[in-house]
User: What shape does this take?
Amino acid sequence: MLRKVAISVALAALVCAPVGAQNAQNAANGAQTAIAVVKAADMAMGAAKSIRYTGTDGYVAVIGQSSSPEINGDGWPRFHLRSFSRVIDYETNSMREEQIRTQGDNPTEVGGGQRPIIGERKSVSFYRDGYAWNENPDGSIVARPQDVTVRRLEIVMTPHGFIREALKAKDLKLEERAESFRSTKRVRTVSFRYMDKYPLTGWIDEANHVTKIQTWHPNPVVGDQFVETRYAQYRQFDGFSFGTEVHQSIGTPPHPSYDFTAANLAVNVPNAALEIPAAVRQATDNSAQVTTRELSPGVWLIGGNNYNSVAIEFAEFSLVVEAPVNEQRSQAVIREVRRLVPTKPLRYVVNTHHHFDHAGGLRGYAAEDVLIVTQEQNFDFYEALGTALHPQVIEPDALARAPRQVHYVRVQDRRTITDGRRSVQLYHVKDQLHATDMMIVFLPNEGILIQADLFEPPPAGATPAPTERNMALLRTIQRVSIKPTRMVSIHSGEVPIADFLRVVGQREFVASGEGLDAALNEGR
Assistant: This one.
């Protein structure tokens, strides 16, 4: 019997050996075909150690700052891109990018993103070899470790950057696909995993030009977020080719990110390599650092990096207002709340609105089974994208690593959370376009009003004209008949209530509309 088994195994080995060898040969041929396509594109477009190009009269969108949380809503708000310039040194993996934005004819109050722009707004950003930083208007430098991934991927999502990395890749895969749903033409795609982490796919046409590059960005709100940059209208420039019509879209469904026409192209430009400032090399991601200040007994302001949360202790549980930035920030705030209130569970996190910078930490609370209190417009958006249990591959967070059902408290116009002694009142802020789901939070016993993006302190001694958001906040306060004596801004911390009254032209808060009706019916 053993002899028969040995013979069978030997025969199987003889049969499988040619098949295995054939599969290995097929794989080798496929890799050779893929590398041949990449080399042909390299030859057609021209090798570049560095590249410089500019653009004018395009647009740039503010990612995650839509007015409405609807999945198929109005998209991200835009600014006019008056000028754009980018210099990339592929040898040192570095990039300098300058944008000058104006408001253009875009709505001034629809959506977020520090609107409106008065005059021009200039931004200068840098990246080299795992370090990201910005230059302030006064010439000072600020490290931006949170932007490293996106800027690194922007380099390899240029046609020449993609080809350079594809030539080094060990896992090239070649496929043939339909060009689009409008065309029967077949095009080739080359895929590989950049840095063994980020999936990259380049679409290459019959002229051996890279016309489209796709990848995924990690995002604290939606997880892995699809990104596509297209290059059309290829032109020859002194021995190399570049697609001059540049368009990027991000997300599902896709929203435009930026669009411009490239000009003044040059390769192998001098002084393209950047030097990393010493302060940037020494900087660390401090998004998880928080500072705490007691506002009132059992109420704490937990701040850091221009974002604040407010922790509130109840008789049998605790509550946090706002989960900004990312999971690391949420974990730091949760640790601080458990230090402040060690014997009571953290039960609720209140979300003022859906903008990515204010909702970026919600998944961290969801992973701890904390109830998310949000305006009802957000439910479908969060369930489909923000807190959905979809795979996260690039940078999996706690909710992705250990999925659990996410639970919500959905607020329509108003809701009160109370233990009979302390109350938190939530109100929907209507008739404003910054975020149609906006809520404010009021602590009646303490007289504290908590708001996000609706009012920031004016410069000392100044009384600017009120904005649409300022007036929407005033209307809400009057409509629901509350009289706050203190104000907390999610961005600025505590703000003198007198500053707000002065800007909106009021001496005091006076109930109006339904608030006045309620006051009269109560005999006040």
